[in-house]
Amino acid sequence: MRFVIPTAFFAGLGFAMRLQEEGHEVVLAPRGIHDRRLESRYALPGNGILTKRPLAEVVADRATYRDAIWIWDENHSVEENELLRREGFRVFGGGEWPERMEHDRDACLGFVGEYGLKPPPSYSFEDPESGLRFLEEHSDQAYVFKPDRGENRETWLPISNDPAEANVELRHHLRAVRSTSPFVLQEVKDGVETNVEVWFVRGEPRFAFVTLECKRKLTGDLGDLTGCAFDFAFAAPIDCGAVAESVGRLFPHYQNTQYTGFADANVIFAKDGVWFLEKCERFGYNAHPNLFWNLNRAPLGETFRQLIDGTFEPNFAPGFGATCSMYMDHPTPDTFIDFPEAVAPHLYFYDVFRRDGSLFAAGYYDNVLIVNAFGFTIESAWETVLERAHDVRFSSRSFRVDGDRTDYPSSPLRRYEALRAIGLV
Question: What does the alpha-carbon distance between residue 28 and residue 187 come to, in Å, rounded to a whole number?
């Protein structure tokens, strides 16, 4: 088969490499980067490994790829994605709908609200002073600070578990904020945070899985927020409580639109109800390598083809997939990456190129790769993923080592036990 992988930040590089290893013809199509300081580094990932053509060039020459399957990583280049769809190309992922769900908060909340999913109470502010007055008036409640514009790390959560102390922490933070972006203060809800994802073929739900993520870079759930420092994924019945109370509420929309693809919802199952946090329907974050590297029994190319042509039937193992993101503390160009041959099939690369037979990180991004492992328990999956991570060596590498620990509030092991105890999975 032939595949084109349009990419913004090489989240789909690992998929492209696996498809080529399976014997398929693959073209990696970067959209380009706007930060000129990183242009020379951005140009490197995939070099010496895959055929690369700029996305604009591939779209202009799209008649050449009429028989290809286009796998869109992340949500970017919406006009190109929708053009291909209108012209009947086989496109998986991306497009106007997931772009809006990820980046238009009001549209997203309006959509899920029609089906009974509500976010924790949130309050919008234009400047820190008005937010401070609000916090002083509600001093017994903890809140999360979420800027309308900014990076993941700019979302701010208090450290204290005591609501009054957490409120004081946030007031100190607001006094130090220099950003001019409007922001939201969202009530902190005590419960089990979970991501639920369902895969559809022409509106029919075919498969569901649950992901338990940790999003801070440092062990003990410390440090900056990142996309995903590590996660665990496991298959779930489509009719289980976790699905029914989250994505399951949205089934009528996906059935009416004859949707093919996946739909997700990040929610908190709390004592006072189910609270919606976000949905992005973005392909290529940790959960997807986790699903396809660790749980899927079928070849990757066949799975994509079946999803596109409507013949997809789930073939996933019971048990748990685990991923662990490996970073460079200080992204450095031309960083040599070394690992045993036996570990190679379990690695999913974001930032790598080949030169003189060796692999190097380009250093345009701090997240170099994901390590994958399978286990019949969370503990055994994590033990294996750590063994493999320790075998991968590069300068200033870092990764979390506490996936099976229970001494921090967002412990996936404790969250899984809670989901089981309250009958959601």
Answer: 42
Contact of 301 with 217, CB cutoff 8 Å = no
Q: What is the CATH number of the domain that holds 377?
A: 3.30.470.20
Domain assignment of residue 154, given as a range? 122-187
Of 102, 135, 166, which residue constitutes the final position of a domain?
A: 102
Tokens of 357: 């037979």
Q: What single DSSP character describes residue 102?
A: H
Instruction: Please give the distance of CA 165 from its chain centroid, rounded to a whole number.
Output: 31
**Cα-only R_g, the chain:** 21
Q: Kindly state the tokens that stand for 329.
A: 């503390």
- With beta carbons less than 8 A apart as the criterion, state whether 42 and 364 touch: yes
**Contact partners, residue 172, CB within 8 Å, separation at least 6:** none
Q: Please report whether residue 331 resides in a domain.
A: yes
- What is the sign of the dihedral through the CA atoms of 83, 88, 92 and 97? positive
pLDDT at position 147 is 86
Q: Which of 147-161, 168-182, 225-239 has the lowest mean pLDDT?
A: 147-161
Within 10 Å of residue 219's Cβ, how many Cβ atoms?
17
CA distance 272 to 267: 13
Domain assignment present for 110:
no
Q: Which residue has the higher pLDDT, 160 or 235?
A: 235
For 278-301, write each residue's pLDDT tens digit.
998 899 889 999 999 999 999 999
What CA–CA distance (Å, rounded) separates 422 from 425? 8
Q: How confident is the model at residue 227 (pLDDT cuts 50, 70, 90)?
A: confident
- What are the CA-CA distances from residue 101 to residues 51, 263, 280 (Å)? 32, 10, 6
Arithmetic mean of pLDDT over the chain? 94
Per the structure, the count of domains in the chain is: 3
Separation in Å, CA 400 to CA 40, 52, 138, 215: 29, 33, 36, 11
Check whether residue 132 and residue 201 sit in a common domain.
Answer: no
Residue 169 CA to its chain's centroid (Å): 29
Give bridge partners of residue 204 from the DSSP assignment. Answer: 201
Domain shared by 165 and 208, yes or no: no
30 touches 51 (CB < 8 A): no
Same domain, 82 and 200: no
Cβ-contact 372, 319 below 8 angstroms: no
Helix axes 105-114, 96-103, angle to 10 degrees: 100
pTM of the predicted model, to two decimals? Answer: 0.93
What is the Cα–Cα distance from 138 to 134, expressed in whole angstroms? 6
What is the amino acid identity at position 99? E
